[in-house]
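PROTEIN DESIGN WORKSHEET
SECTION A - STRUCTURE
LENGTH: 184
TOKENS:
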């Protein structure tokens, strides 16, 4: 089974958990601590992501994925209280996540199938006098909200490209034996 090297920036408490348990999985408490004021808004999106991410080798106790970078330079620089972990993992355990499409999701926006689909969606929003964020974050536009959230299923469809092909990786857990290096 081929392996790849990925990097992840994690709170140093993750290192403690890896040392004591031999593995780390992200849970809601961890996400709330990391995201602080934006946790409630982002947890809606993270829950969607966890429910729609391909479940390859998902441990029964894993609720949220762990974010990794395919390039060391793309990993956030270490800061006090954090570590950048270099991991050597089985390639099939990492799910590719398109950054441009993920940005659309974090902005509560529509992921179009193509340019014509995007133009039609934007025309419809303009006709109704609303926008993506208002449609998703309020209860006034349930049909549009549903359409926008359903479009997020295109996140893992590699045939749909929105400009850049840059990607993050997602994994369900980090195991201690995968750590090649830790920069504190």
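SECTION B - SEQUENCE
RESIDUE ASSIGNMENT:
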């Amino acid at each position: 089974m081929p392996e790849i090297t990925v990097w992840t920036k994690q709170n140093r408490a993750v290192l403690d958990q890896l040392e004591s348990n031999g593995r780390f999985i992200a849970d809601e408490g961890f996400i709330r601590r990391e995201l602080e004021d934006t946790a409630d808004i982002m947890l809606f999106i993270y829950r969607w992501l966890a429910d729609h991410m391909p479940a390859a080798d998902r441990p029964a106790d894993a609720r949220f994925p762990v974010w990794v970078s395919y390039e060391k330079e793309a990993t956030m620089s270490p800061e006090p209280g954090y570590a950048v972990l270099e991991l050597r993992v089985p390639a099939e355990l990492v799910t590719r996540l398109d950054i441009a499409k993920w940005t659309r999701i974090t902005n509560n926006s529509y992921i179009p199938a193509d340019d014509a689909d995007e133009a039609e969606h934007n025309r419809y929003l303009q006709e109704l006098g609303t926008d993506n964020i208002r449609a998703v974050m309020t209860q006034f536009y349930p049909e549009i909200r549903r359409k926008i959230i359903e479009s997020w299923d295109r996140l893992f469809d590699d045939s749909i490209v929105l400009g850049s092909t840059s990607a993050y990786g997602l994994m369900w857990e980090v195991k201690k034996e995968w750590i090649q290096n830790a920069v504190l």
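SECTION C - NOTES
The chain has a mean pLDDT of 92.
DSSP finds seven helices and eight strands in the chain.
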